[in-house]
Design brief:
Radius of gyration: 38 Å
Shape: rod-shaped
Membrane topology: Single-pass membrane protein
Helix content: 40-55%
InterPro entries: Band_7 (IPR001107), Band_7/SPFH_dom_sf (IPR036013)
Keywords: Membrane, Transmembrane, Transmembrane helix
Number of helices: 7
Distance between the termini: 96 Å
Subcellular location: Membrane
Protein name: SPFH domain-containing protein
């Protein structure tokens, strides 16, 4: 596997000055009818001097190869002169955003879900990016999709019934993003790519089970709310019986206590307005 070799070529300003001087000398030769010398100067100027001049912009690099052999990479920005016979390939070192497409996969529990991720990446080693893979941008796209699929297969979308400790795609956003970033860095290191950030951008149940899962979530919410209401109602009934007993307002036997508890629980736990029935007889009629 190729290792990146950074080179610092000489400045191109002196070479450009030489180019202008040789161009002036060639013109002078043509004026003085020294056509052979003028032609040689022009050929040397345009075939050996000018092709070696390169401009490297900030956050860009030039990968140089000479007759199929890797020479080195220029990462410093500026104006330089390199061997004119080398082939020069520009590789951007800027950060890139990959907005992955929505994938339909199965989670750990076998539920079909839709998932997509946003990946921020950049080229870290130009030699690997150019020589180790055919097309490093396509390589990033395919490996990112494979990593997202693998991540979706090892975690459930949401907590299973009775399970609260495992990591889920829905609630474990930070941990899932960290695992995705680590896996992408491992997969893309072959191409000299560094992943700066990776996050889940879209997560939902597939349309065919979305309505069923919505009903399940609603039922879970209703059960949780009912549980809280019952706990509060029991506390209020207990407090009412205790206050009645402490202040001696009324003495209730066990049967009437049970009836009172039942009535209070119906009133406090019911989801509709209660219609009271007034008993004008005795306590036992």
């Amino acid at each position: 596997m190729y290792q990146e070799k950074i080179i610092n070529p000489p400045s191109g300003y002196l070479t450009f000055a030489l180019f202008l001087a040789l161009l002036g000398a060639a013109v002078f030769c043509f004026v003085t009818e020294s056509f052979i010398w003028g032609g040689c100067l022009l050929a040397f100027n345009f075939f050996l001097v000018l092709p070696g001049l390169i401009i490297n912009n900030p956050n860009e690099s030039k990968v140089l190869t000479l007759f199929g052999k890797y020479v080195g990479t220029v990462k410093t920005d500026g104006f330089f002169w390199v061997n004119p016979l080398t082939s020069k390939r520009k590789v951007s070192l800027r950060a890139n955003n990959l907005n992955g497409q929505q994938l339909k996969v199965n989670d750990k529990l076998g539920n079909p879900i839709e998932i997509a991720a946003v990946v921020v990446w950049k080229v870290n080693e130009t030699a690997k990016a150019i020589f180790s893979v055919e097309n490093y941008m396509q390589y990033v796209n395919i490996q990112s999709e494979a990593a997202v699929r693998h991540l979706a297969n090892i975690f459930p979308y949401d907590h299973a019934e009775g399970e609260e400790t495992s990591i889920t795609l829905k609630d474990g956003a930070e941990k899932v993003s960290e695992l995705l970033e680590n896996e992408l860095n491992e997969r893309l290191s072959r191409a000299g790519i560094e992943v700066l950030e990776a996050r889940i951008s879209h997560l939902a149940y597939a349309p065919e089970i979305a309505s069923a899962m919505l009903q399940r979530q609603q039922a879970t919410a209703v059960i949780a709310a009912r549980k809280l209401i019952v706990e509060g109602a029991v506390g209020m009934v207990e407090m009412a019986l205790e206050k009645l007993s402490q202040k001696g307002i009324v003495e209730l036997d066990e049967e009437r206590k049970a009836a009172m508890v039942s009535n209070l629980l119906v009133v406090l736990c019911g989801d509709r307005h209660v219609q009271p029935v007034v008993n004008t007889g005795t306590l036992y009629n």
